[in-house]
Design brief:
The chain is an alpha+beta fold. The chain has one domain: Cytochrome P450 (Cytochrome p450). A 4-stranded mixed sheet has the order 1-7-4-2. A hairpin with a 2-residue loop joins strand 5 and strand 6. The protein starts with a strand and ends with a strand.
Length: 396
């Protein structure tokens, strides 16, 4: 098997848009990723994506930001502010996991820190299984842990499933209106289970995939952005006066720290891309980390964090290829990163994305770097993620 790496922005962009290249980065993690939306290809992917994209319309994102997000964030954050400090990595996972659970359709009836801790442990195990290719641990050990976590997950999934199925039955029977159904992925899948031939096992994996993908990538993006902001300015609170600039800080950090530093593709037939012949048994590595730092696109200082950066190509956003592009573009792009601002953007009605809004709320509570404990990198993965990131809240 030959291996080819593309690192120039335009080459990587073209490859991501090529329908003859299938996703292959998560083949090793099929215990949790087999046949989920991210790993499907061709007509099956088109059908599933069309089905689930109904939830990602901007009116839903606006509803999510204004109605769901504030309550869940306050529930997790308020006790930590009262305590005076927190670890940003742990907090990020807790808040984004709960937000993603709302979206995926996983109920947490107790709404307690202990319940969050149980579900979070399950989700982190799912994440490690999904990104097995980047793990430094024994693969069989990780797979065994994922299988055990799948069993534990049913404590949450089975009652969530039963409640939604009962509501769907009531809707079909004319007892309730459609707008009384939950607006989440699980409800959509259950309503269409027969028409798109979804097994119970596949629905379980799909919900687990959303839960781990949303919480894992969003939490890491938030911590990276906070670190970049702390390194960039001695007075992060000034960003509260310019929320559009705060969002640009988030997008610039996302460019420098894509959730997945590479994408892997395998051709479904012989192709030529970037003047290279690629065969079906070959591996094509798309270096998103390098492409997002391509000086031809982002300037000679592309390695530098600069939220004021101007990108000459109007079709390229400041976050680069972090959310991918083409048929496998991240469906949660607008939910996570919001909509990129333009010169005529109204900051009062703008959609900022939950990463920006989480950081904004933290700054409103006077978050500062911890005065006695330094952050540390995660030693269990080859990805450049933070393992701990202590912060404090100055007393108001």
């Amino acid at each position: 098997m030959a291996q080819t790496t593309l690192s120039r922005f335009k080459d990587v962009h073209a490859a991501l848009c090529n329908p003859r290249l299938r996703q292959s980065l998560y083949d090793a993690g099929e215990v949790i990723m087999k046949d989920v939306l991210l790993t499907l290809h061709g007509e099956e992917h088109k059908i599933r994506r069309h089905l689930e994209l109904r939830l990602f319309r901007r009116n839903f994102a606006h509803h999510y930001e204004t109605n769901v997000f504030p309550k869940t964030l306050a529930w997790v954050l308020d006790p930590l502010v009262a305590h005076g400090e927190t670890d940003l990595v742990d907090f990020g996972y807790r808040v984004t996991m709960n937000l993603t659970a709302d979206f995926a359709g996983v109920d947490r009836p107790a709404k307690t820190p202990e319940e969050t801790t149980r579900l979070l442990a399950i989700v982190k195990t799912f994440s490690e299984g999904a990104t097995l290719i980047h793990s430094d641990r024994d693969a069989s050990e990780v797979i065994d842990e994922v299988k055990a976590a799948q069993i534990a997950f049913r404590e949450f999934l089975e009652p969530s499933w039963a409640r939604r199925q009962q509501l769907i039955d009531q809707f079909v029977g004319g007892d309730i209106d459609e707008d009384e159904l939950p607006r989440d992925v699980l409800t959509v899948l259950l309503r269409n289970q027969d028409s798109v031939e979804l097994t119970d096992e596949l629905i379980e994996r799909e919900i687990a995939f959303y839960l781990q993908a949303g919480s894992h990538s969003t939490a890491n993006s938030m911590v990276h952005a906070v670190n970049e902001i702390f390194c960039w300015t001695d007075d992060p609170s000034r960003l509260l006066e310019d929320p559009l600039l705060l969002q640009k800080c988030v997008h610039e950090s996302m460019r420098l720290h894509p959730a997945s530093p590479v994408a892997w593709r395998t051709p479904t037939e012989p192709i030529t891309i970037a003047s290279r012949d690629i065969m079906p048994d070959d591996l094509l590595i798309l270096d998103l980390h390098a492409a997002n730092r391509d000086p031809d696109i982002f300037g000679d200082d592309a390695e530098k964090f600069d939220p004021h950066r101007r990108v000459p190509d109007v079709k390229t956003e400041l976050y680069g290829l972090t959310f991918g592009t083409g048929v496998h573009m991240c469906t949660g792009r607008d939910l996570d990163g919001g909509v990129a601002s333009r010169p005529d953007t109204d900051e009062e009605t703008h959609q900022y994305g939950i990463v920006c809004l989480v950081i904004k709320t933290l700054l409103e509570h006077k978050m500062i770097p911890h005065k006695s404990r330094a952050p540390t990198l995660d030693p269990t993965t080859s990805r450049s993620n933070w393992g701990t990131y202590p912060v404090q809240f100055e007393r108001l």
